[in-house]
Protein 1
Amino acid sequence: MIRATAARCRPTSSPGSLSFEVEADAAPVPAGDIAVALGALNRTDPSVALAGFAAQGASLAGVVELLGQAAGGWFGEGPVLHCGTGEAITIEDSGVGGHGRGNRSVASATRVPRTLSLSHYDPARDWQIGVQRAGGTGPASRDMRIELPAAIDAGTARTLAEAALLRTDTERTRRTVHLGWEALAIPPGSRVRIAGTPGIWRVDGWKFEGMSVSLDCVALAPEVAPLPGSGGRALGAEDVAIGRTILHAFELPPIDDVPATTPRIAIAAAGEAEGWRRAAVLLSIDGGTAWQEIGGTQGIAVLGRILTPPGRAAPQIEDRRNHVVVELANPAILLDHADDMALDAGANLAMLGDELIQFRRAERLDARQWRLSGLWRGRRGTENAIGSQVEGDRLVLLDSRTVATADLPRGAIGTEVRLLAEGAGDIGEAAQASAVINGISWLPLPPVHLVAHRLTDGAARLTWVRRSRSDWEWEDGRDLAPEPGGERYRVTLIPNDGIGWAVETRAPEMTLGAAAIAGGARIEVRQLGTAGASPPATLTLPDQGEPA
């Protein structure tokens, strides 16, 4: 058992904090001695030893009652805790006062519970709560439970449960003994032997009336021999190092076909060791001047870094020429292959640098290194990041169970957000990450298939195709969902030999006059939405007379 022996203030990292020194007893402490140490008793009989006890409750009296119940004892003058069948005073039922002799009563057997359960802290099961049950044979239908906040082994707990059940049965038997004045010296709580009657009794109360003393006695149960008990098998957590937090943050385009209403970042975290579980996260959108709590990380993400980056490739077809070699932070993580149907359903989706990819095959090279191939590049509008990766860039496998998201203010586009994450293993310094918000989570996508068709008079007819962030599935016979507020585009002309200009249109086409493009020009087409303008789709027009 551990008891506080000294308390004093001493310098710590937090001024004014209070530190306690505690000392543990060399051996288990008897229950009665604990009650004496609490100041509730003057002395005690020998009682059951407890390896630990939580002195908790609404009152000291309640704690002492619980200790007495655990010891199978009762309280007498002193105050003192009596336990077991010790020394007893022999008395003779003389029937003084004409009350007669041998007054005996036995309460109904229904007072004895059907079962008695005793809960305790089991040291063999990493101090988890254990329960031992004792079963009766009487007609009662009720159950009884004793919640003992003590550390004892399963065998001791079973012995206490059996003893408590035996006491409830034995104490149904009571005797009333009528004695002379000399019995005034026998206080309640004393043990007595009644001449001619087997067993030991305890005095539950007495009454002085009519020049005689009446003692109400309750039969004491015999001691229960120690019984074996099994607490079951402990399923304790493996004692492993926690490690520092690894944190990644990046802007994430919608991957669930639900358009975002504000910019959004993804937060993925894991640990340098297998014992890491979570970390609290702070976010700043003003360069670190002010920080706000945004909760905690979500699960243990699959993180890594690029060892061999992939080259450039077209986003329209599967990249079977390039591959990427990555090193995972956790060697226990296993990656898997994905077939066409799984890829179409979103399997093996990962943020590789700033490019969202999917991979068909994952080949393990050693404990941490994997080669990913069969790449689907530039997913969800991240084609501008294809080929931008360098050695050391991040790999984050996207999974809603392990990657959290946080919405940002609309004014965050064009800024850098900073994050801090601190877990149990981040002593002294929190993990840091930052993300540049360029709008890929919220802004419209740039148009595709921008083409200039030469006309006979030297003009050029521009056409393009709109894209939507909420329509990534190719469905036959179905057009893209309409944009809120309708289609709008900004067409910018930057001539090689003149002043540029811009114009807006609601149709995915525009005709440019011959004079405007005679010397060649650069064309930029942006889709406009409620969030702002998309990145541009670009096209270069040569001088007149050259093919577009």
Note: The chain has four domains: 2-83, 89-219, 245-436, 448-541.
Protein 2
Amino acid sequence: MMTEKKKMTIPLRDVLQIDLLKGAEILAGENGLDNSILSVNVMEVPDVLEWVRSGEFLLTTAYVFRDDLSLLDRLIPELYAKKVCGLGIKTQRYIETVPESALALADKLGFPIIRIPQNVPYGDLIKEIFNHIIGEQRDLLIRINDFNDTVREIMLKRGGMQEIAEQIYLATESPVIIHDDIF
């Protein structure tokens, strides 16, 4: 879904594993669970499209839809076009259920709609999602640092290109070819 410059992200499916979301339910758009989350935003205004960005997981109590559920049918394609990674909805407060038409549209687009448990505070959920994203970023930085240390050790010991290529292969799990015009 995202085609912009590669950023440090995690798939929505991974975020659904955090403890606060154990009671969450995937209502629609299961094919989009690999969409990447860059950030979290909250939607409680009708003009949310001005404020959303690509890669955001959008949370709502559905307050803006309480009087006109058809707004969801119009909003979902626009959120999808803006590359929002998914919509987390707390039902049973302002709306009882998400309309079937909205769920069918989300399924067609592969746009995830997740029912967020009513007892989960936004602040706690946002903090946990960001902690998860930051944890993934930290782990990646540790792997990069370890790789740099290993390559530096090879170079200091006057190791060859074969050893460096092996380390690149181990780090990327991709074939490595070293081409030298001199030989």
Note: The longest strand covers residues 56-60.
